[in-house]
Amino acid sequence: MAILLSDKEIMRLLGSVILNGDISFVRPNSYILRLGGVGEFLNANKEFELGGRKKGIKVPPGHSVALTAFETIDFRRETISSIYPDSDLHAIISPTTDLSREGIVAPSTHIDSGYYGTLNWTITNTSNEERRFLLKEKIFRVVIFKLDKDERPDKLYEGDYQGELGYVRSQRKGAPVGMKENEWEDALVEGGPEALLDNLVKSGYPWHVLGHKLKEIDQQLKIVTDEYGEIHDSLQGLSNKINTLDEKYNNFTEKLSTTITETLTKEATSLQNRWLIGGGSIIAVLVGLILTITGNEAAVEFIKRQGTWIGLIIIVMGIFVLYLVSRKKSRQNR
Q1: Is 195 inside any structural domain?
Q2: Is residue 310 in a domain?
Q3: What range defines the domain where residue 133 resides?
Q4: pLDDT at position 119
Q5: Which positions ≥6 away from 303 have C-beta within 8 Å?
Q6: Residue 94: beta bridge partners?
Q7: Could you report the per-residue pLDDT of 111-160, keeping only the tens digit for each?
Q8: Among 112, 123, 166, 280, which residue has the fewest nearby CB atoms (within 10 Å)?
């Protein structure tokens, strides 16, 4: 039964089966392959080479890039036999989770028994942001299985990429020469804008140049549209927050206005009551004095002679009594 190699077993492969490997990239049951120094920007048919002045690559939104691994894999039987006699190795490669979290789409693949060479893949940036990758950055994860004697294939890998080192373009054989355009099926809708643009590209010089430019503009407009959508969503969220704050402010001002009105009403009523009590008290005192004095002739004669001063004293006493009542009420409110 095929056995999944552990970190201890993978470390035995470094230097022979995994060339240019680094022990720090060994994981519990896998090895992390790193970004190699050569590749190609597929949208522009432009090859690149890192390691000198260039330290990394930039992948714009919607673009695809062909990459190579920094490590070289040697699954040839003569190499494997020195470590695992009567056994072969088979591996499964998948992208690291960092790539998927950033909107980078990359395929998973296998390494057949007997393969020797540099691994090549293609990644596509489906996000709306530019992604950057440095030379020797972690890109793919490889898990390796040891095949026992009964599981070894009768025929080892002998494909087009056997023994190829560095970046190798696709070796897929194209369509036979001489096929007509009407023998191909495509996604274009007759009369649609994409079909019209495709016809413009096929019209030859100078119209094909204009067609290619329009395609580039269309791609840029799609990017701008996506960015506008994000801005619109952000503004909508901000507008909702402002409406919530405005509603809270209106509720606060309404409650504050009601509280102030109720407080002023209570204070006015209290002040009115104090004045009524004070005024009533003064009137009662004056009435009592008048009745007392009018019953005494000597008192009446005295008031006639000193009436002005007595009136002023009574007024001052009334004001003093009102002051004391107001001051007591003010202390109670505090």
Answers
A1: no
A2: yes
A3: 3-151
A4: 92
A5: 293, 310
A6: 141
A7: 999 999 999 999 999 998 999 999 999 999 999 999 998 899 988 888 77
A8: 280
